[in-house]
Design goal:
With 97 residues, this protein is mostly helical. It has one domain. The chain is built from 6 helices and no strands.
Length: 97
């Protein structure tokens, strides 16, 4: 409803993504998933294997995302205040257009 573009931190905030992983980790992600031991011992839980790999890559990606602004997150109290109504008619006039 805001028409704003979002980046990775905003996508996580909005529930559209689970993790922020820098794009330069793509090849490492694919390699680690390929090399993972699937179905052996402690690695029998596929979700756990994927989460471990993603968690590690997310941690190494933190510097990339630490500098990014998250405008939707920063303005979420105002967005909630403006949009938290029971009907379109209750929105302020500029928002109804």
């Amino acid at each position: 409803m805001t028409g704003a573009q979002i980046n990775a931190p905003d996508a996580v905030h909005l529930g559209l993504a689970d993790r922020c992983i820098a794009s330069h980790h793509r090849d490492a992600l694919l390699q680690q998933l390929t090399d993972a031991r699937w179905g052996a011992g402690e690695n029998t839980d596929a979700n756990g294997v994927v989460n471990r790999i993603m968690r590690e890559l997310e941690q190494t990606s933190q510097p990339v995302f630490a500098e990014l602004e998250a405008p939707v997150y920063q303005h979420s109290p105002l967005i909630r205040e403006l949009m938290d109504h029971d009907s379109v008619e209750q929105l302020s006039p500029p928002l109804r257009r």
